[in-house]
Amino acid sequence: IFNVAKLQGQAEAPLARYAAERLGYKRMVLTAPDYTAGHNRVSVFQHIFEEAGGTVVDTIYPPLGTQDFGPYLQRILQQEADAVWAFFSGEDAVRFVQQYAEFGVRERFPLIATGDTVDENILDQQGEAALGIVSVLHYSPLYDTPANREFVTGYGTVPNQFSYQGYLNARVIGEALASVSGGSAYTADAFVRALRTVRFDGPVGEFRFEEETQFAIVHALVRRVERLPDGSLG
């Protein structure tokens, strides 16, 4: 299996170190949905944050599909902490970010998050509540390289992490096919060998696979939600 997507933890680990070493947070509350991915991501963030000298004062796991985050936000307000880290996605992320602001938690604790929590496809729904949230992800449509500007223009709408992963998937296959000779030399084994050596400069810089696992070595982009010149969020 060759995987072009990020693994659970590939955003959380660098964000945890960034929170401790660059943002100066010493005490944090961590919150994520109560299922495997949520627990895995919390575990990685906590491990790296504590390794960097920080302290996790509470871990909070609302159920998937939570409509009212009030009880969990009240629990956060009772903590002595510098900031909150969160991982939510989709409609859960929309509700959490909006209610985080509505309950006044944002006024006490800065919110940082895995990039899924402020993914481009839900920013408009989150609105003003998302402003200022710092996140880490392996892609941003605002990353300023010629290759990314070309990708964004060709995509036709605002691409997000999943758009980028689709591009990488197709690009990897194309690069491997192009390097395999035709005729009798073109075999499944030859194609797999070619996949292992794929390397190119894409929208977010160099892409290649880690040799042992065949997972992508991804870049960690630190992002902050801001109001763009055209009035949209990004």
Distance between the termini: 33 Å
Shape: globular
Q: Mean pLDDT score, rounded?
A: 95
Oligomeric state of shown chains:
single chain
Distinct helical segment count: 9
SSE order: HEHEHEHHEHEHHHEEE
Describe this structure in words.
- It is a single chain.
- The protein contains nine helices and eight strands.
- By secondary structure, it is an alpha/beta fold.
- The strands form two sheets. Strands 2-1-3-4-5-8 form a six-stranded mixed β-sheet, covered by helices on one side. Strands 6-7 form a two-stranded antiparallel sheet.
- Strand 1, helix 2 (36-51) and strand 2 form a beta-alpha-beta unit.
- Helix 1 (12-21) packs parallel to helix 2 (36-51) and helix 8 (161-179) crosses helix 9 (188-196).
- The chain is globular, with a radius of gyration of 20 Å.
- The chain starts with 11 loop residues before the first helix and ends in a 10-residue tail after the last strand.
- The model has no long low-confidence stretch (mean pLDDT 95).
Give me the secondary-structure topology.
Elements: H1 12-21, E1 27-31, H2 36-51, E2 55-60, H3 70-77, E3 83-86, H4 90-102, H5 105-108, E4 111-114, H6 123-126, E5 134-137, H7 146-155, H8 161-179, H9 188-196, E6 199-202, E7 205-208, E8 221-224
Parallel strand pairs: 1-2, 1-3, 3-4, 4-5
Antiparallel strand pairs: 5-8, 6-7
Helix pairs in contact: 1-2, 8-9
